[in-house]
Structures are given as C-alpha cells and as structure tokens.
Amino acid sequence: MSHIDELRDAIRKLHGAEATHRESVPIKEVFNGETVWDGIVEVFHLEGHPKANTAYAWLHDTGDPSKPTQHVAVLHVPPVVSPLTAVRAFIVQEFRSNANAQA
Predict the structure, then answer these.
(1) Cβ distance 40 to 86 under 8 Å?
(2) Tens digit of pLDDT per residue, the chain (103 long)?
(3) The predicted structure's pLDDT at residue 102
(4) What integer pLDDT is reported at residue 72 of this predicted model?
(5) Is residue 26 within 8 Å of 40, Cβ to Cβ?
(6) Contacts 24+ apart (CB under 8 A), 43-46
(7) C-alpha span between 94 and 88 (Å, rounded)
(8) Rounded to the nearest 5 degrees, what angle is found at the Cα of 18, between the Cα atoms of 40 and 25?
(9) Measured between alpha carbons, how far is 51 from 74 in angstroms, rounded to an integer?
C-alpha cells in the first residue's frame, strides 16, 4: 500500500469522507532561524464532508519506537486554508499537547 493510499484511508477514518489525491506540496517551516518542519503535504479533494472539500495529509515521525509514524489529516477550514497553514496548525497543536503533558 502506498503512502497516498494510507493517507486516503486515514482521512476516511478520521473525517468520514472519500478522498482523491490532487497534488504533493513541499513545505519547509522555519521558526527563529531553525527548521521546525520539512516535508511533503499531500492535498486531497474530499467528497461527502459537510464542512470541507479539501484535506491536507502527511505522515509524521513521532520519535516513538513503538509507534514510529502518525497519520495527520487536517481539514481545509479557516484558519487552515493551505498546506502551509495546515502544517502550522499541527505544529501549534503538538506544542500545546507537549506543554500540557509536561505540566
């Protein structure tokens, strides 16, 4: 199974919509001079979702040997309006989750 098929399945499972791959977009996000994310975001057209007709998805390296990758699927719902803003929203969510776990 290709990573596109894996992501399509993850979108169906997470968001209950059928997804058709549209394009692959390279994204590099830099914060304070350091690269915080560098990868390819897959853009999918959605059918059957009540709020979005696009999803952005990728595989994320978790750093956890027991579950080394995570499927990420972010809907095109403002403020997420592009592959870049999807990555930024994910980074913020991860940062908040890590901060809460340490509190």
Answers:
(1) no
(2) 899 999 999 999 999 999 999 999 999 999 899 998 999 999 999 999 999 999 999 998 877 888 888 899 999 999 999 999 999 999 988 888 776 766 5
(3) 67
(4) 95
(5) yes
(6) 43/83, 44/7, 44/8, 44/11, 44/19, 44/20, 45/19, 45/20, 46/11, 46/15, 46/17, 46/18, 46/19, 46/75
(7) 10
(8) 15
(9) 12
Paired strand residues for 30:
35
- Integer Cα distance of 85 and 60 in angstroms: 16
Strand 34-47: give its sheet, edge to edge: 18-31, 34-47, 54-61, 69-75
- Residue labelled with tokens 């692959």: 24
Q: Would you give the distance in Å from CA 91 to the centre of its chain?
A: 10
- Single-letter amino acid, residue 25: V
Contact 46, 68 (CB under 8 A): no
